[in-house]
Amino acid sequence: MRACIQQRFHQLPHTRFSFLHPPRIHAYTVANVENPSAPSREDYAYANVFLWNTMIRKQAKNGDITRDPPLLYYIQGLRTGLRPNGQTFMYLLKALVCGKNVNEGVEVHASVVRTGFASSEFVSGALLGFYVANGFIGKARQVFDEMPQPGLVLWTLMIRAYVCLTLPGEALELFRTMRGVGMMPDMVAVATVVSASGLLGDLGVAKTIHCFIEKSGVEVDAFVSSTLINTYGECGSLTDAYRFFRETAMKNTVVWNTMIHQSLEHNNLELGKQLFDSMLERDVASWNSMIRGFANVGQYEEALALFHDMEISAFRPNTLTLLSTLSACASHGALEAGAWIHSYVNNNDLNRDGSLDSSLIDMYSKCGDIGKAIQIFEESPRRDLFTWTSIICGLAMHGHGKKALCYFSEMNESQVSPDEVTMVGVLSACAHAGLIEQGRRYFQSMEKVFGLVPKIEHYGCMVDLLGRMGCLKEAYDLIMGMPMEANEIIWGSFLSACRVYNNVELGEVAARRLLELDPCDPWGRVMLSSIYAEEAKYDRSMGLRKEIKEKGLKKSPGCSSIEVNGSVHGFLVEDNSHPCYNEINSMLEKIEKLMN
Fold first, then answer.
1. 3-state class of 419 per DSSP?
2. Which long-range contacts (CB under 8 A, 24 or more apart) does 132-137 make?
3. Labelling 6: which of 36, 128, 270, 370 has CA 20 to 30 A away?
4. Residues 447, 470: contact at Cβ < 8 Å?
5. How confident is the model at residue 406, as a pLDDT?
């Protein structure tokens, strides 16, 4: 590494480092002898160290460390006789973090020890941060342990390092050691420890830390309050989170938003809406939480209504707002509302970088307008993994398998690597188009070519493809050879294929597995009954029908929906709950008479 740096140094113009040249420092010294009022050698040396540090700091700020490696500046400064100070090492380590230069960081660590700065808490903190950023928690702990008397900052940094690397047990153990040596935490340290207890997911530990905070007299600010609410939520106790929220005096917008977020995470929409309506000061995050919360639980109409309320209020929707709202439109099949949001985005120039293109493609695909989805993709300036995946999955969903695979080929030619979701779209496209050979090839290429381990969704696509093409034995062998247990979806897909091809033997196996997974679902019995009827095994068929009736098993009712004037209306089988039920029935009767 050092050899590469030195080689790079010799390729650079020497004038770039002229301010560090020894003759200049010598000239300044001569001038000082002739004129006692002139700046001393020490003054000029300090000025040069300042410039040296500034150049290293600039690299850290700009992040451009490939053209001018920070260690290059450091080595040349040493050659010219400059002595580093604490700031030199802090800026240098910060610059190296940006470039993930681990080997160079180890060299700097050695220089820190040689120059006696290992006892500096700030330099040790920078070293600790460097190792943590590169995932070397053991090295970071070594730096911490070598400090004779670490201060509160270093204790907090080390505890936070464990939290950032999802090691809450180690973080809490270190906090106990910190208290054992008499070190009292401040608000930052307390918030870090509270986060650790949340990661641990142990409600008892969270309450113990909360009790310590109250007894120790540590000031509880808004940051600590929001962290405690989050922790109680992560430990599964919305009740304790809400109790603390009501009791704490520190309630700024962030604390309110945190409580709303936890309410929605626990699917308590009523509490979340109540808190949202009670807020005196909302921000964009407040609106985003509510819109996303309603969308996540399938209440898409309420999510869209909130977006319209936000749009007419004083708050301007941001990218997160639009992502949540477009997701709600896609899941709800609200094409008209989605198109209106698309128009809003264009009119307000909110998609200049194309970051919303993948969501727009997904929305139009799921709402049935695949032509518009293709148009957005073709016009998109941003051909990244998400836009490619959205159009491939959209085309597969609409049965355009061959076109989806053409796009997948273009994606590979563009040097964009697929992920697991992309491959689900590709295999689904093969299934819908009946492309069995391509499906086999793409499934095998997942691990061999793209380094992706097939998940249950990919096996499901292959079972669907093989089942559609009548390769039932191959599909069954694939299911039995899966590295995970097949779920209801896979066995259900296989049973449907057995029904199509009237394979009683394998159909019985699939139905039996479905009954084991969900004894209360009548679907497997209904399908097997149909298979028996097709094979004239009426006694078995009637026996299953009788069993369904005696056990009172009922299928989940089918649902259809239609969008009218921006509102989506849903209808269930034998459902008369719609407010316009009578008018709808009257119109259907008129249509029926006209058709007859």
1. coil
2. 132/161, 132/164, 132/165, 133/97, 133/100, 134/97, 134/100, 134/102, 134/105, 135/165, 136/102, 137/161, 137/162, 137/165, 137/167
3. 128
4. no
5. 95
